[in-house]
Design brief:
The structure is a single chain. The protein is built from four helices and no strands.
Length: 132
């Protein structure tokens, strides 16, 4: 019985820490988004890099919302974020990259995209059912 109580308390403490961490991530993402919008307003222009950065912020917020809602984090959300981050890197630094570096980043994006397809296929084909 003592082990059961300890496990319950440990899970409660870890859940609370997790909640605080997700709250901090949410607040930091909202602040970063606000600062980016302010930067665009002050510059009087919106670049593709700005838009991709805003998509990154929205993906992070969506990921946190799903985690708050379901208590689970779909693996594909961080992969989506990685794809957008690599695309942004490629767009912003294209002039400074040599051909092999660009091909490496593009290949990474392709591999991550294939990983999403495999994950989606596996989720549909080999569903957990009600045990998710």
């Amino acid at each position: 019985m003592r082990q059961n109580q300890f496990t319950h308390h440990a899970q409660s403490v870890l859940g609370f820490i997790e909640y605080i961490g997700l709250t901090i991530i949410t607040i930091a993402t909202v602040i970063a988004g606000y600062l980016e919008v302010s930067h665009m307003a002050n510059a009087g222009t919106v670049t593709l890099g700005d838009l991709l950065l805003m998509f990154l912020y929205l993906e992070v917020l969506a990921m946190v919302a799903i985690y708050f809602e379901s208590g689970k984090l779909p693996v594909r959300f961080p992969v989506y974020i990685a794809i957008v981050a690599l695309a942004r890197y490629l767009v912003l630094d294209m002039k400074n990259l040599d051909m092999w570096h660009m091909l490496g980043v593009a290949a990474s994006i392709l591999l991550l995209t294939l990983a999403v397809l495999v994950l989606r296929y596996g989720h549909v084909r080999f569903s957990y059912g009600d045990h998710e």
